[in-house]
Amino acid sequence: MKTKYNKRKLKKPFRNTKKLYKLFRKTITRKQRGGSKNTKTHSKSIIIDDTDTSIGERAFFGRTDITSVTIPGSVTSIGERAFQGCSGLKSIVIHPGVISIGDRAFSGCGLKSIVIPGSVKSIGKRAFEGCTKLTSIIIPDSVTSIGDRAFSGCGLINIVIPNSVTMIGNFVFSGCSSLNSIQIPDSVTSIGEEAFKGCIGLKTIQIPESVKFISNNAFAKITMTNLENVKAPLRFHHFFEGAPSLSEPRTASH
User: Fold this and answer.
1) pLDDT value at position 59?
2) Least confident of 41-55, 131-145, 153-167, 211-225
3) Mean predicted lDDT score pLDDT of the chain
4) For the residues of the chain, what is the DSSP string, one character each?
5) Under a CB-based contact definition with an 8 Å cutoff, are residues 80 and 124 in contact?
6) pLDDT at position 250
């Protein structure tokens, strides 16, 4: 016996298929990408729920409407591209607990300043790349690894590199044209390719005796005549030819 279907009635449940798909996709995205059902997303502010232990890859990727984020101490990792492209994101509070910040986690964001908690050990590649409004960042002594291009193209004015860092990777601060001073700690032994390339605003550079290797183009495209105070081991003076003030770093007296 054949069952008869009413074609007119059959079509009705499928009229909103696109809306249902979008709702389904949004729900799946939240669960898979690191936002629990308790994560608060009122208007333009996001407060990650304190039961979440991680923020997944691309969790809030491209959300230009977000202006502030609060990450609780329960979260130990911020995934790759988690907040990439959130150009409206101006404020973020990261509570102690986060251990790693993934690759491109905040690249292209509108952040103006950020305090990285003392629990963080690693900052991924391109983590803050292209954050042109980011003028201030505090990196704690707990950080031992800073990925390539981590702060490339940022609006940083000053940067303090902690003593826990042993090498400055490739392109880490390249294109930071507003950066006016850098002080390399005694823990650093090498400075990578184009690490400070294009930092045309630099006036003060201090490199300790602990540094054994500097890539040939680490300080490329810097206006040497603008440098007011350069202290570097004699073996590296050729990198700063033309600088009006060039001397060797002071060594501790015994």
Assistant:
1) 96
2) 41-55
3) 86
4) -PPP--HHHHHGGGTTHHHHHHHHHHHHHHHHTT--TT-B--TTEEE--TT--EE-TTTTTT-TT--EEEE-TT--EE-TTTTTT-TT--EEEE-BTB-EE-TTTTTT---SEEE--TT--EE-TTTTTT-TT--EEE--TT--EE-TTTTTT---SEEE--TT--EE-TTTTTT-TT--EEE--TT--EE-TTTTTT-TT--EEE--TT--EE-TTTTTT--GGG-SEEE--GGGGGGGTT-SSEEPPP----
5) yes
6) 78
Checking if the pLDDT of 218 tops 50, the result is yes
Distance between CA atoms of residues 97 and 53, nearest Å? 9
Sheet holding 204-206, edge to edge: 158-160, 181-183, 204-206, 229-231, 246-247
For 46-97, the pLDDT digits (tens) are 999 999 999 999 999 999 999 999 999 999 999 999 999 999 999 999 999 9
Single-letter amino acid code for the residue at 240: F
